[in-house]
Amino acid sequence: MSEKRESVPPNQRVVYDKFPILHIGSVPRFNAEKWDFTAEGLVDNPLRLTYSEFLKLPRTMSVSDFHCVTGWSVLDNKWEGVALKTIFDMVKPKPNARYTTVVAEEGYTTSLPIEDLLDHDVLLAYRLNDKLLEPEHGGPLRLVVPKKYAYKSAKWVRKLRFTEKQELGYWEQRGYSNSADPWKEERHA
User: Fold this and answer.
1) How do beta strands 123-128 and 99-104 pair?
2) Is 32-184 a CATH 3.90.420.10 domain?
3) pLDDT band, very low/low/confident/very high, at 8 (cuts 50, 70, 90)
4) Domain definitions of the chain by residue range
5) Distance between CA atoms of 139 and 38, rounded to whole angstroms?
6) Is the distance from CB of 47 to CB of 70 less than 8 angstroms?
7) DSSP state of 24
8) How do beta strands 72-83 and 60-67 pair?
9) Which of 48, 97, 124, 160 is 20 to 30 A distant from 54 in Cα terms?
10) What is the pLDDT of residues 148-177, one digit of tens each?
11) pLDDT at 97
12) Secondary-structure percent of the chain, ordered helix, strand, coil, rounded to 5
């Protein structure tokens, strides 16, 4: 892991010793036999996968920095999981689908334009730094969108919903920036 970085987004401090844990609600209990992942909405091929089926999808790895809107950053995280492009290729969003709402446990949602989710480093991660993703960090499955503040990287993801109009997520409804670019310091709307 890199101990030195010339720059991080404005007003962020690098955390080296421990990856902080922040979330709303309680940490959901995971049951691999009952868990599923779905993709629906404006798609040609709606999808439902069990946990074991999800783990059989092509795996990708990405190393990226993670920036929390509260002001901390963790550098050089090794994420492993499924690229969003893989899911998109499977479900085939309709031409009028422009956004994806990410639905997670505990009623948490966020949404992003489809083009933001097609970046090479965006994935649905189930491993972090060569270990299964711990429940406190979003396991069994979390979205990772490195170019956005972490509230866009939803923990405990269960569903993707493809829409024509953007549905504001949990934090965006409460005044946080919908674009969430840490390099532009887009913390609040």
Assistant:
1) unpaired
2) yes
3) very high
4) 32-184
5) 16
6) no
7) S
8) antiparallel
9) 97
10) 999 999 999 999 999 999 999 999 999 999
11) 98
12) 15, 35, 50
